[in-house]
Design goal:
about 10% strand; alpha+beta; 11 helices; about 325 residues; 8 strands; two-stranded antiparallel sheet; globular
């Protein structure tokens, strides 16, 4: 029991500082000779992706709790989830309570824009640029933003002062502060009729077809690797904006209503990332074991491929 307690305490301590885990990942590049193996290099780049995605989710959750202290809005059940949610309407529709009425996030019309992210993203970019060059770093960053789009369909509306803005409060008028969010939908006219009139299921169809092609089953039963998800969605026509697609099809979810614009959102849940689930709650020692296992598995696959090549040549 004592050893288990110490192990979990180390995990909590490690998770307090994402920079500790970033420095660990940086050391892996040389210690595991990452550059000598393309599959292992792909795993290393994927780890940097999910490390940043995990920190993004952590920052959003901390901002939600901070906002909730100022103006209570989260239900007890939502708080008990401790941030273990997918950022989509499906998972967030019952997280909020206003005047004892359970409701959905408070959507705003503007979009995310080119807001600065945490310094860890900049450090990741600079690390990849030093090791692999500027072009590879740019490619990695484009893929990171694509992963944000594919895994986060409801995003906080930030300001320069806070990660999540709140609506104005006025006790005299009975106005309570609400966290401000916006939904993101995929509005490619080849995939959905425009203008969007109701809540689309565009990404549901895209992910169903992608899973059926990749796993033989369209149901959401297993997680993706980052490379696998981007490639599978590319095959369904969802390309990376700015690099593979000249036009931006990811737009703020809204449609015209009787009193102006009203929000719309994708009906289903976004994709799950296998490695993101693998690293959550892990100590440095456990992450080290994970990277070592990746290396051993890939070496084993290389040996097996070599054996098969030899047999084929006989």
């Amino acid at each position: 029991m004592h050893e288990e307690y110490k192990r979990r305490w180390r995990a909590v301590k490690d998770l307090r500082d994402v920079y500790v885990r970033f420095n660990q990942a940086e050391s892996w590049y040389d210690r595991y000779n990452v550059q000598q193996s393309l599959p292992l290099l792909a795993k290393w780049l994927e780890y940097l992706h999910v490390l940043n995605l995990e920190q993004f989710d952590t920052d959003v959750w901390k901002a939600m709790l901070k906002s909730n202290k100022r103006s209570p809005e989260l239900t007890p059940e939502a708080i008990q989830q401790k941030g273990e949610i997918r950022f989509c309407f499906h998972d967030m529709k019952n997280m909020f309570s206003v005047d004892h009425s359970i409701g959905s996030p408070h959507f705003e019309r503007p979009g995310w824009g080119n807001r600065p992210y945490r310094a860890i993203l900049q450090k990741s970019f600079e690390l990849i640029e030093r090791r692999l060059g500027y072009r590879k770093a740019e490619e990695w960053l484009d893929e990171f933003f694509q992963l944000i789009r594919l895994t986060h369909w409801v995003l906080p509306y930030p300001s320069n002062a806070s990660f999540i803005m709140s609506t104005k409060t006025n006790r005299n008028q009975g106005l309570k502060g609400r966290m401000m969010w916006f939904s993101v939908v995929y509005a490619n006219p080849e995939k959905v009729a425009l203008p969007i009139r109701s809540h689309p299921r565009t990404l549901y169809d895209i992910l169903w077809n992608a899973r059926r092609e990749a796993f033989g089953d369209g149901r959401d039963q297993q997680g993706w690797s980052t490379v696998q998800l981007i490639s599978a969605c590319r095959a369904q026509g969802v390309k990376i904006y700015g690099r593979e697609e000249a036009e931006e099809y990811w737009v703020v979810g809204r449609t015209a209503g009787l009193k102006g614009f009203k929000p719309v959102w994708e009906r289903t849940r976004p994709a799950r990332l296998e490695m993101l689930e693998q690293i959550k709650g892990k100590s440095l020692d456990e992450l080290e074991d994970l990277m070592g296992r990746f290396g051993r598995d890939l070496i084993g696959n290389d040996i097996q491929d070599a054996v098969e090549d030899i047999r084929a040549s006989l």
